[in-house]
Amino acid sequence: MCSIPHDRKPPGLGEFDWQPGVGVAVHGLYFWVSWDYVSGSWVILEGSSEAGGLPFLYILKSFILIMASLMALQILANAVEAYLKLFQRQQPAVIDWFQHREPEHEEKL
Predict the structure, then answer these.
(1) % of the chain with per-residue pLDDT over 70
(2) Which 3 state secondary structure label does DSSP give 67?
(3) 13 CB contacts (<8 Å, ≥6 apart)?
(4) What is the DSSP string of 12-57?
(5) Dihedral through CA 45, CA 51, CA 53, CA 59, nearest 10?
(6) Least C-beta-crowded within 10 Å: which of 4, 7, 42, 88?
(7) What pLDDT was estimated at residue 97?
(8) Burial environment of residue 22 by CB neighbours within 10 A (0 to 12, 13 to 18, 19 or more)
């Protein structure tokens, strides 16, 4: 990892601009490899082989695909946000709103 503190890094893309691409590729590969595993489980409506085990194991295995998809989407969202921060002089209104909004419910003393 980088031993330079974040506040001393030179402006620009930096050395970590390749990470979103690798992250999306890894989670895409994870999704692709898991597809046969999960779809096979759905075809046979797999349940536990143990007595008294989980009856709907195929639903549980589906979370593998959901996790890979959500992680890839989060990585893409982080990459877009980093791009917007680097190449736009002013933050988009949506990012500004999320960072500076006030709490909805304030406690009164």
Answers:
(1) 63
(2) helix
(3) 86
(4) SS-S-TTHHHHHHHHHHHHHHHHHHHHHHHHHTT---SSTT--S-H
(5) 0
(6) 7
(7) 62
(8) exposed
Amino acid at 41: S
State the pLDDT confidence band at 66, using cuts at 50, 70 and 90.
very high
Three-state SS annotation for 79-105: HHHHHHHHHCCCCCHHHHHHHHCCCCC
Task: Yes or no: say if 64 and 34 are a contact pair by the CB < 8 Å rule.
Answer: yes
Which of 77, 79, 76 has the alpha carbon at shortest distance from 13? 79
How far CA 59 is from CA of 15, 34, 81, in Å, comes to 40, 14, 33
Q: Are 48 and 57 in contact (CB under 8 A)?
A: yes
Pick the closest to residue 22 from 62, 88, 71 (CA basis).
71
pLDDT tens-digit map of 5-45: 555 554 555 555 667 778 888 888 888 999 999 999 999 98
